[in-house]
Amino acid sequence: MTVTAAQPDLAALPHIPCDAEGPVFREPWEAHAFALAVTLHQKGLFTWPEWAEALSAEIARAQADGDPDTGETYYRHWLKALEGLMIRRGVATPAAIAATTEAWHAAAAATPHGQPIVLPGQ
Question: What is the 3-state secondary structure (H, E, C) of the chain?
């Protein structure tokens, strides 16, 4: 295994599913969620301890609401934690997140399988 600069940061996030090569994902969108978290961290939106706290709180909320914590919803918790951090930091509003989510679903539904999804205005 090749050691990269990101690996020490991954040690601060012990619940990320990994194999011998690093993080693993069940779906492409999970990799995008992971990359978004890394990018927002690199841009200074949050520290890894802040991220771990936000993600842990989101997972705890989901478990309290009945999530069986089988790992299948893990990256959904990532998205909720990222949304919360962006809202608290003033980077996004709940309305903007909802509008972008709606636009994404509409674009995905209108995009033929195998083609890149493009949001209006991109």
Answer: CCCCCCHHHHCCCCCCCEECCEECCCCHHHHHHHHHHHHHHHCCCCCHHHHHHHHHHHHHHHHHCCCCCCCCCHHHHHHHHHHHHHHHCCCCCHHHHHHHHHHHHHHHHHCCCCCCCCCCCC
pLDDT tens sequence across 35-45: 999 999 999 99
Q: What does the alpha-carbon distance between residue 31 and residue 104 come to, in Å, rounded to a whole number? A: 17
Distance (Å, rounded) from C-alpha 105 to C-alpha 117?
10
pLDDT(70) > 90? no
**Among 91, 12, 5, 6, residue whose Cα is nearest residue 48:** 12
Degrees (nearest 5) of the Cα angle 31, 78, 7? 60
